Amino acid sequence: MTKPVESEESTVRRSDLSGPPPSTPQAPPRQPLHPDPVDAESTISRSSLKVRPAQDQPSRRRSNGATASGGSRWRSVLGLGSRAEDTQAIRRNDTQPAAVSGKSTRRRAELPTITLPRVQIPTALTETGARILDLTGDRIKPLAERSEPVWRPVTRGLAWVSPLGWTVLALGLVAWFLASRYEWTELAMIAVACLVLFLACVALAVGHAKVEIRTDVDPTRVVVGEPATGRIEVRNLSGRGMLPLLVELPVGRSAARFTLPSLASGKTHEELFVVPTERRGVIKVGPATTVHGDPLGLVRRTMEWTEQTELFVHPETTSLESLGAGLLRDLEGEVTPDLSMSDLAFHALREYQPGDDRRYIHWRSSAKHGRLLVRQFLDTRRSHLAVVVDTTPEVYTGEDAAVELAISCAASLAVRSILDEQDTTVVCHDQQISRSTAPITLDAFARAEVGPVDVFGSTGDAAALAPDASIAILVTGSHRPFIQVQRALAQFEVEVIKVALVIDPDAQVGVRSAAGLTILTVRELADLRRVLFSGALV
Q: What domains can you pick out in the chain, each with its CATH number?
């Protein structure tokens, strides 16, 4: 009989491939009719041992368990979804037993972990660098101060040249170098043109204009929306005529530019300008500067002639009736014209009337005049209004616009209190002012910025500035928690009238009381007069 030829697709054990050949031949194992997945993973076909193209190798296939596992790991790192076949391959490898029927188990390949070392600068090097900087700084600073008369004019002169001027100068020098090296006539012409143009622009900037410039703004305090005009006056002080001159005047965030005509000796030219006042704030006007240079802008030299002035744009206010609130009888208060029968400031004697307190009968004067006379006093009262403004935009409906409304309401209350000859303390963001006049108080409101603020801290500052306050008002928005408002106003004394003025364009205007606080709700500035007319602060 002929010995059967062994099939090319017959399988061999992995141990037969990796280990030494056995000493005695053994019969090949019987193949099961239905091989399990473990056998499929632990056996290798003979055909797979042959050299195959790269695209057909099992390690490059997507069905390989290790490859699928590695791909799923990277996809999980990158935040991508894992494929179904990768999930099945991982599940198959995880559930495979360590050894089945004495066969070796194929291990799943793991991705290598790469750890990049952190680049650290040696401490000795950083300390040495710091010491060198300290030593050189201590030595260079005195030298720089002694040589300042030399290098300061040089740096000022270099600052005249604009980036365009430096570009033209560099182009001329490079063209000159190339023309002299390669004898290019065209480059020589370009070099001459650039250098001559640069020198001509420098010559136009050199010189000192003998002028006198005056600027003023009238008025210096306006309300939002009111017109404000300014005037700039230039006078030629030189003995000869002056060429046209460019004058720049910064106004807030912008700048006004005036091209003055030619002026004869001693002549004056005047220009008017308008200052925008649409927003509350402080607008800085000036300083006025003259610009000397060329029309192309290669060289620009400026000189300042005036000081900087400020234009205060006050918040809008509304006229209020006398508050009639916060008047506490105090023996150490100020004397008022109101007469009283029980106070400290003696005023006069008058005849006894039924109901008068007999303790105030002046017996010696009564015996002298033959009728009962009683003492009459003048009231001494203490009245101090403390106003705190919450400038946090997030607590208002409408944010910045609602914050401006809150500042307008606080300014109206402060002005009315000052007109009533009461002491007034205002805390608005970073501005604090106490016992001042109405214009200066409104200046503080104009300087106040809009931004997050600590209400508890601001109210504490107001309580420290006004320990004798008789009424405290916190202007805030509807989104501020009530417990925070209550805790903030609780820093004032018990006898102080505590009021929370809430700005809410969606709520109903009214007055209510809660937890010892008087809560006033307004939607617009005109509503403030209505809620105060009801005597809410009494």
A: 127-206 (no CATH), 211-314 (2.60.40.10), 341-378 (no CATH), 384-534 (3.40.50.410)
Rounded CA separation 110/91 (Å): 15
Element (H or E) spanning 441, and its range?
A: helix 438-447
Specify the pTM: 0.60
Under 8 Å CB-to-CB from 346, ≥6 apart: which residues?
A: 375, 376, 377
> Is residue 381 within 8 Å of residue 391, measured between CB atoms?
no
Residue 376 burial (CB count, 10 A): 16
Cα 483 to Cα 406: distance, rounded to the nearest angstrom = 20
In sequence order, what are the residues at sequence separation of 6 or more whose Cβ sits closer than 8 angstroms to the Cβ of residue 373? 349, 350, 351, 352, 361, 362, 365, 366
Of 304, 522, 230, nearest to 397 by C-alpha is: 522
Determine the distance from the C-alpha atom of residue 208 to the mean position of all C-alpha atoms in its chain, rounded to a whole number: 42
CA–CA gap between residue 358 and residue 355 (Å, rounded) = 9
Q: Is 223 exposed, middle or buried (0-12, 13-18, 19+ CB in 10 A)?
A: middle
Q: What is the Cα gyration radius of the chain? A: 46
pLDDT digits (tens, 9 = 90+) for 313-327: 999 999 998 876 544
Cβ pair 211, 233 in contact under 8 A:
no
How many Cβ atoms are within 10 Å of 384's Cβ, its own excluded?
A: 23
Buried b (16+ CB within 10 A) or exposed e, 165-198: beebbebbeebbebbeeeeeeebeebbeebbebb
pLDDT digits (tens, 9 = 90+) for 295-318: 788 888 888 888 889 999 999 999
Number of helices (H), then strands (E), in the chain: 14, 22
Residue 511, pLDDT above cutoff 80: yes
Positive or negative, the CA dihedral 319, 322, 328, 331 is positive
Single out the residue of 73, 64, 9 nearest to residue 41, CA to CA.
64
What are the C-alpha distances in Å from 121 to residues 18, 118, 155, 525?
50, 10, 36, 62
Longest Cα separation, the chain: 169
Q: Tell me the C-alpha distance between 442 and 278, whole Å.
A: 16
- Cβ burial of 309 (10 Å; 0-12, 13-18, 19+) is middle
